[in-house]
Amino acid sequence: MLLRVRSITYLAQRINAYELVDSDGGNLPPFEAGAHVSVRVGDGPVRDFSLWNDPAEHARYCIAVLREPEGRGSCQWHEIVRVGNIIEASLPRNNFPLAAEAEHYLLLAGGIGITPIMAMVAVLRRQRADFLLHYCTRSPEETAFLDDLAVLAAMGRVVFHHDGGDPAKGLDIAATLRGFKAGTHLYYCGPAGIANILLAPEPSRQCCRSEVRQPATASGFSAPRWSGRRCRCRLCSWLLFLLAAAGYRQKQRLLAAVSARRGAGRFGRRLLSLFRLFVFLRQAAL
Length: 286
What we know:
Blueprint: E1 2-12, E2 15-22, E3 36-40, E4 47-50, E5 61-66, H1 72-79, E6 86-89, E7 104-110, H2 114-126, E8 131-137, H3 150-154, E9 158-162, H4 173-178, E10 184-189, H5 192-199, H6 234-245, H7 251-260, H8 265-285
Parallel strand pairs: 7-8, 7-10, 8-9
Antiparallel strand pairs: 1-2, 1-6, 2-5, 3-4, 3-6
Helix pairs in contact: 6-8, 7-8
């Protein structure tokens, strides 16, 4: 479908928000929190971006684009796209849905990974659900939606973590995970480094990797939901790790993360080869 850029807003350093509306002025197909769209500007590459606005809105899609020095697609958005431009877009797809049955929601966002989480926050607030968001960035200047989340931060629903580029000064993930409540579902979107910690098996962690929910964007993927049971199956952990990884388009860093996992063995290497093939076929299809 064809969408028109109605507005461009500065969110933070190197991050712009783009409001997309129907080119004919009508309503857009509905979407759910966690959904993304694939978009193309002119003859540029196809990019996936999470929708960060409230799913209750039917007249617009809102995306955020982080300008990356070596990212041709992101530079094109920042340098070429202007208000009034027409872009190609797919229908919304959702590989990162909220589960309605959770008793508590623990949301973790790293950098631009805040975008699908923002839509989740809008839904959870409307449902008056119990949730807590930990939002990790380098600095306040690089924190998108800082003002929008300030009220929730004052209410204790959002905690900002600015590490200045040193992860050791940021969120203590181990301590955060130790304090989770039974019935908590965890959703994560951000860099692969944090995801490795979330997905790493720990004998002391009472959790079951029963489902994986991941955004199919360049931002990252979610961690498994926690149900309070223990899963001892290394094979299941590997399969679920690769399923989560399938939504991660920056494949070089992700494959390095997968390769670094210990204890993979011959079967793990075969799974890694299958994942490489999956990435190749997915890129060819685009």
